[in-house]
Amino acid sequence: MLESNRREGSYTVPSEDLYPFQWNWDSAFIAVGLAKERPEKAEKELESLVEAQWDNGMIPQIIFWQEAGGYFPGPGEWQIERDGVKTSGITQPPVAVHAVTELYRETGEESVLEKFAGPMERYLEWWREERSIDDLVYVRHPWETGMDDSPAWEPVMEDIEPGSPDYEREDLQLEDAEDERPGDWDYDRYVYLLRQARENDWDENTLRELSPFRVADVLTNSIFVRACRELSYIHRQLGNTRKEREWRRKAEETAEAIRDRLWESELRNFVSYDFAAGRKLRENTVAGLASLYGGIPDADQEEKLLQNMEKNFMEHRYGCATYSGEEQDLDRYWRGPVWINTNWLVSEGLDYRGHETKAERIREQSIELIEENGFSEYFNPESAEPRGSDRFSWTAALYLYWLDESYTSSSMSTQ
Ligand code: 9WN
Prior knowledge:
Layout: H1 2-5, E1 6-7, E2 11-12, E3 22-23, H2 24-34, H3 39-51, E4 62-63, H4 75-78, E5 81-82, E6 85-86, H5 96-107, H6 110-130, E7 132-133, E8 136-137, H7 142-145, H8 154-158, H9 177-180, H10 184-199, H11 204-210, E9 215-216, H12 218-237, H13 241-261, E10 263-264, E11 269-270, E12 272-274, E13 279-281, E14 284-285, H14 286-289, H15 299-313, E15 323-324, E16 338-339, H16 340-352, H17 356-373, E17 378-379, E18 386-387, H18 393-403
Antiparallel strand pairs: 1-2, 3-4, 5-6, 7-8, 9-12, 10-11, 12-13, 14-15, 16-17, 17-18
The chain binds (2R)-2-(alpha-D-glucopyranosyloxy)-3-hydroxypropanoic acid (9WN).
């Protein structure tokens, strides 16, 4: 399946029917999954991501290498072409840095580190320079979080008056899309934010003041911290002691900001912060559990986070649900279903912090879900029924990662 989703021998589309281009964090998860068995393909996957990096260091969310129908918003809507490459004008969480170290650990090839150290450093610098406020990184579109219709974004989206933008969705052609995909209410606002940024030439200085969506997403921040740690590890391997220390310090600065400012004791979870309105977005989502992946929580927070996880996210037949709360809908996108990439982040995080049994349970449940129901985009946690696209690349790639019997957590080397 991964072979048939690969294009031009270099990158893999998330799925043929729904997402016919290259996506940023999808490629990173795919490279993680391919690193052991097909390292040369994992390397190509990352090379094509880096080839589309903007001059300012941003790696785009979508790269339109080839024309393809069936997806909105396509290149015509974004209207961006740089050095002959068409892309979207936003990014996604920087999982790619970890994919590089994963590939290095599997191959032992120092050339991998030499090739990617520069682009990954420029990417993380971009986050720090263009997208951070007081040590927290922020996103300016729900698509940048990867968890597009998370109930956490609702208060921010409610404050947006999108008018009646003219556009046509393409995703509704998928069977049952109305029950599974985000609604038109969300799409009107997605399009509004896209067009506002386009009208302002994607200028981060302007958008930092103007965009109504400026959110320190806890998932992106946790992944950013982990990425800084992985970059520090890259520098250590390359003998750059000064940079090794510098990136470890940067990781710690953001980790501390998350601990101090994003903890929500009533929920026993970390939450996101809305810079535009100056408020916490108090929803209990898997994004907060992924703080484990960044090694964020202090001992007390970690104990409470694990209690919350057991009670509210592992209560179904299959864990982890992506959301627990009033808006829960076990069939709809990021509002409850199990997703394999967030399961990977949480299980890696649990391993990282020494909770191997809990990590193993998530892996086993994920493998069972996939073996019984296919490589779906997401799954209903109770009925296990497949949802979304049914040939979804990161589901297959992370399955390969887990299947490998010699599986060992990669996380220890970065501590
Ligand atoms: C917008 C590609 C992407 C994932 C995201 C997932 C979904 C896109 C969409 O698909 O988002 O980026 O159109 O719904 O939410 O996490 O990267 O698989």
